[in-house]
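lol ok so funny story. i was supposed to be doing the assay writeup but got distracted and ended up predicting the structure for this chain instead. priorities right. anyway since i did it might as well share w the group, maybe its usefull for someone
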Amino acid sequence: MFTAAIQSAMATLLVCGLLATAARADALLVLEKDTQTLAIVDPTSLAVLARLPAGPDPHEVVASSDGSRAYISNYGGEGSALNILSRIDLTTRQPLVPISLGALHSAHGLDFIDGKLYFTAETSKVIGRYDPASGAIDWVLGTGQDRTHMIRVAPDLKHIYTTNVRSNSVSILESSTRPGFGPSVVTQWNETVIPAGRGAEGFDLSPDGRELWTANAQDGTVTVIDLERKQAIATFPIPVQGANRLKFTPDGQHVLISGLGRFGAPQADHVNLVVIEVASRKTVRSLDLGGGAAGILIVPGISRAFVAVSGGGKVAVIDLHTFALTGQISPMGQPDGLAWVHPGPKN
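and the output, tada:
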């Protein structure tokens, strides 16, 4: 007969095992601004598995490559004194001590690549990098642009792209090396600033790496940039107000663009998501999701897109074959930033 102590120990091990198994499954992360929480969602059943504190004014979220951590930008808006990134242990589902950014303020855009976290600090007009291994910010680079908002780091780590909302521009940052003193090598960064439309914000790179498309929220347009020539080659109108985020489908044939609505009257607009055919640059689908829409998440290998319907208190699920609404996650408190967790192999 088992003693009470042994039974208790076995129960604890069982719970820990269930938590570890759950943590190692693919998951959808959703930031809820109203409640300042991070929701962990089962992407198959669309059930919310847990809600955890996300810190003040959470805007964007990204998961580490091994799926063990979630990093959250605590924004505060232009001119904010906020200078932290929140983080969550996704295995234990516990918040961790926030990352202090020191003199850098208004963190927003995030990207995680090669074991490091890249971020924008909008008020400080910089991008930076945090190294989880050392627990320190190990690199900062100024952009000289107003409201450097979103960021994408190329797999080669030599190209970084940002949108700069108030400067109405896109920055292409490229690294190169030159000989230093003695045997040392110096890495230097060069920036090309490309004019876009007013309020350039949500952007994405085409899967073939040839083009960057950015949605211009205040113009109701999209600017297409040729990345080899480093220049804008087209700007065209889109039928969505307050364009917020833009994402390519994995096959590169379509682009999804969400809209928050007209500034000052977000509920007056009934088109919150449009689908653009890339080859023709024509709108092939317009959807009313029931409120202004923000974050878009498209994961390669999964035939669905997740769209944060901030004004409708839900996350919409869109079929990428038909571009029809097939489900929703609700209720949610002003959802915005989205991320995907794909756990890596066990150590």
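The first helix runs from residue 4 to 23. The longest strand covers residues 169-179.
back to the writeup now i swear
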